[in-house]
């Protein structure tokens, strides 16, 4: 094992792998002194205990990198009491907040800062126009339950047409939707349209990437997780808020684009039932000029961002 390590002092692995017996031959040669946990806001506190127990004699520092305004620990929707390390009040004074993001265009970044980060998140980006965010008014799009998930057939058509337009213009893009049934349906529609479909469409949870100073970093400067130049979003729901009540997940969905975002929903839904949601607020901020009619998209008349 020492020959295989070639003098390396850094181990990259999952948190669960640290508790696996197979790694013990490595940790005997490289004592664990510092552990850096990425996406720490998604880890329930009890999940750290095995690592602390196993390496307590050599461990000197634990660093937690994450964003408590994005995805919560797995199971939080069923057990709201589940906490990440960021929710512990006695540790919060030790947080270092990285206050500048470079990913999102300024109109989107400023909105997210105001409504999610208490106006503390600054934006450094060259795109300043509100046209970086477009909303497609999918009239007649209806939510339909599919097993325990949801789909919206008209939004699938709109998303695929937008993908075709962006592909023709040689733009780099990906798609996000809150519901796995919609994700699967979009993938199939992309295949049928002979468009790139692998590594293109994701649900929100899969798209967010992955002496002792207890917390040394709270990530916001580069915004954690996956991204692309253009992000196409399919909201799916048309009658009830559903996923949109979870502001942390919606925050993930709205913070993935580097150049532009296209959101498929209906104006009636975002101006009505969803008007108080984070995404409804974004639609209001971007204004009427950000809306594009469904028929324009079908005709290929989609304004450039």
Overview in brief:
This protein has helices spanning 2-5, 24-29, 49-55, 106-115, 153-168, 180-192, 204-207, 247-254, 267-271, 278-286, 294-298; strands at 34-37, 61-64, 100-101, 122-123, 133-137, 144-146, 149-151, 173-177, 201-203, 228-234, 257-265, 291-293.
Major beta-sheet overview: 6 strands, parallel
Mean pLDDT score: 90
What is the CATH H-level superfamily of the largest domain?
P-loop containing nucleotide triphosphate hydrolases
**Number of domains as seen in the coordinates:** 2
CATH architecture of the largest domain: 3-Layer(aba) Sandwich
- The SSE order reads HHEHEEHEEEEHEHEHEHEHHEH
DSSP E strands, number = 12
Look at the structure and give the CATH class of the largest domain: Alpha Beta
- How much helicity do the residues have? 25-40%
Structural summary, described in words:
This protein is of the alpha/beta class. The protein has two domains: 2-95, no CATH class; 127-208 and 227-298, P-loop containing nucleotide triphosphate hydrolases (Rossmann fold, 3-Layer(aba) Sandwich), CATH 3.40.50.300. The chain is 29% helix and 16% strand. The chain has eleven helices and twelve strands. The strands form four sheets. Strands 9-8-10-11-5-12 form a six-stranded parallel beta sheet. The model is unreliable at 210-222 (pLDDT under 50).
